[in-house]
Amino acid sequence: MKIIGSFVSPYVRKVLACMNLKGLAYEVDPITPFYGNEEFRRLSPLCRIPVLIDGDFAISDSSVICAYLDDAYPGHRLFPTDPKDGARARWLEEYADTRLGDVFIWNFFYQKVVRPLVWGEPSDEQRIAKSLDEDIPASLDYLEQELPGDGFLFGEIGAADIAIASFFRNGAYAGFEPDSTRWPTVAAFVERTLAHPAIASLLKYEDVQRSAEIKSRRQALLDAGAPLTVETMGLREPRPGMMRL
């Protein structure tokens, strides 16, 4: 199997961690967000990552990919089998992908990291301030009531746990850490989830991808032992309209 996407993307991180939980072998085409050739746009019409290629089958969207992996492959369950728990898991995953995606990625990480480094543009400081002062605290207030005081949401770690914690790693890359006094449950949950081997094992590849120049990232990742494919979808210069992490 092949995953097209950046190790630093919270959506790619979620899929790779879930594949690690399943014990599935995969290769990664480490396309930089906002890059991509015609073949990539054929596979992902919305220009989103990740894309999963499994033999002659290809699908995009991280939630769809995780559901497919749970249906198609045995092993560690990514979603609970109980209907009510399964519904709640999918809701929390959706909350992470949409609400946390907005407040942590587009209003914070994108503004502080991607705009200056990828586009050479100044950050939107008002948007960052609103995210830090209003939107992120409101989201953490909600999660403080929803997350478990110990362990994971439904016993064993699954897609919902990973989806939530994944956005906090990007938040940390932009300088945000949850206040353990104000949000003790959130802070402890994020810490233990990101420390799980399925997701912690990806950190070294993220560090390489964040620190290397775009043109040398593939070789740097290979030197670090990342499971890369020899092909690449990221052959096109970045352009507006391809803004999906």
Describe this structure in words.
The protein has a four-stranded mixed beta sheet, covered by helices on one side. 40% of the residues are buried. The chain is built from ten helices and four strands. It is mainly alpha-helical and 245 residues long. Helix 1 (10-22) links the parallel strand 1 (2-4) and strand 2. The longest helix is centred in the middle third of the chain and has 37 residues, at 83-119. The protein folds into two domains: 2-77 and 204-223, Glutaredoxin; 83-198, Glutathione S-transferase Yfyf (Class Pi), Chain A, domain 2 (Up-down Bundle).
Number of strands: 4
What is the CATH C level class of the largest domain, in words?
Answer: Mainly Alpha
Roughly how much helix do the residues carry, as a percent range?
A: 55-70%
**Approximately how much beta-strand content do the residues carry?**
5-15%
List keywords for this structure.
single chain, Glutathione S-transferase Yfyf (Class Pi), Chain A, domain 2, 4-stranded mixed β-sheet, 4 strands
Quick gist of this model?
By secondary structure, the chain is mainly alpha-helical. It folds into two domains: 2-77 and 204-223, 3-Layer(aba) Sandwich (Glutaredoxin), CATH 3.40.30.10; 83-198, Glutathione S-transferase Yfyf (Class Pi), Chain A, domain 2 (Up-down Bundle).
